[in-house]
Amino acid sequence: MGNPSIITPLAMVDLQTQYQEIEHEIQAGFQEVLTSCQFINGQVVKDFASDLADYLQVKKVIPCGNGTDALQIALMALGLEPGDEVITTPFTFVATAEVIALLRLKPVFVDINPCTFMINEYQLEQAITERTKCIIPVHLFGQAANMETIMSIAEKHNLFVVEDNAQAIGADYYFSDGRSQKLGTIGHIGCTSFFPSKNLGAYGDGGAIFTNDEDLANNIQMVVNHGMRKRYYHEVVGVNSRLDSLQAVVLKAKLKHLDEYNSRRRAAADYYTEKLRGVPGLTPPKKASYSSHIYHQYTLLIESGRDQVRDQLQAAGIPSGVYYPVPLHLQEAYGFMGYQKGDFPVSEAMAERVLSLPMHSELNPDIQDYIINHLLESLHP
Q: Which residues pair with 189 in a beta bridge?
């Protein structure tokens, strides 16, 4: 098994080692903000938004307070009415459905593809009604939902598409005509989170909204700032959601390294997969042909005994994650929707089998071998 003392304690994400590589730049940026005292909407926030827009090749990036705010603001900017339906997946973090319900819209779920964990695009049209106004595909674990098909369906039915890109910033979508485009820039609006554990993570909360539509960008900018275009003149009901300058320092520094971070994650994922391919009772993650994968999570399927495997890993000092143990349609908070167990069988099956291993840009083969050996032992004691 190797000597665990040289590679523990382990973490799902190693932010400390990552910080050591960029410490000087972060500290210098912090000092500039502290000296200027421009803590809110400082120049560094504007600079980061511009840098991110250039990286994504999108016209507008509007920073905000967190990823949940980003989703809520996106829906508010679309001018939807209470009772309008928004289609999304039940196999995602609760924020995706939460903002729909908070705005008195109606969440409508569509099951997932068992290979990619993404919303099943071939079931979308069955869920569309005269009240449907929007689709929120979630780019889960680091790769894409099938955006080409989703956008075609949305255009056919005159629907908005808001991409939940909290877990896949930097990933590319490959169109059938050979074009590629960054995730989050294909739909009418894209949203992301800068939670510290994300591939592009702050040292606190943060989020952003992207769009190529000038009118939507203006609406979004109003909503994030109390519904104002001009100070003290409120055109719509808005919110107060902004990225502070200290977080922008971190994100501006990390953005320069994002492709490198994602490349390291791919290398670590390839190493896991090489060692785990063909192991009985275990299925490594599958990569969609239409998307690059940046491995926000490295998520396995355990045929049986997932929780026992997780407990044994934990006993060896190895963290793991279950994303997500209860699909949204079975959560108590969403009982009002009337869904029952069995309505989304793929999501329910995946919830009982998924297990995510440590995944970050600082992994190395020694650490991974330690994890892999204990995983294999837990599967076949």
A: 162
pTM above the 0.85 mark? yes
Query: What are the phi and psi torsion angles at 308 (to 5°)?
Result: -65, -40
Q: Which of 201, 140, 204 is nearest to 167 (CA)?
A: 140
What is the C-alpha to C-alpha distance for residues 292 and 276, in angstroms, rounded to an integer? 20
Distances (CA, A) of 262 to 53, 106, 199, 299, 327: 18, 35, 7, 16, 28
CA atoms of 24 and 27, how far apart (whole Å):
5
Residue 188 dihedral angles phi and psi, to the nearest 5°: -65, -35
* Pairwise CA distance, residues 235 & 79, whole Å: 13
C-beta separation of 196 from 203 below 8 A: yes
* Residue-wise pLDDT tens digits, 73-118: 999 999 999 999 999 999 999 999 999 999 999 999 999 999 999 9
**Number of Cβ within a 10 Å radius of residue 155:** 10
SS3 31: helix
